[in-house]
Amino acid sequence: MIREVLLLFMVIFAGTGGELCISRAMKSAGEVIDFRPVSLVRFVWLAIRVRWTWIGIGLMAMAFFSLLGMLSIEQVSFVVPVTALSYAAGALGAAVFLREHVSAQRWLGVLIVCVGVTMVWFSKR
Q1: What predicted TM-score, i.e. pTM, was given to this entire model?
Q2: DSSP label at residue 49
Q3: Quick check: 49 and 27 in contact, CB under 8 A?
Q4: Per-residue pLDDT at 25
């Protein structure tokens, strides 16, 4: 039980943290407006020089391997719905870390996801 909770924690928070870091990196790198190969290479070069890109990649790799570990000990029909908690973590992280406005309608959606995850979690026990 402790192993599953630890892996779930890693999947959710490392994955969401990675996505938030990548989002922050892309905002500092700027918007892609020119899709010619030379411009794309220039943008990628700029993006890989941003520290948040590498932190995000590391966190997302950690989340991926945690997901593999979780899938090795739990059923997919449990793992996939429960990892939907990353949507709640993402909304909270966007509001706190990226200072994005999260509307009441989005918070309601997060609440619905959390209720669904709770139902899946307790149906397993």
Answers
A1: 0.88
A2: T
A3: no
A4: 95
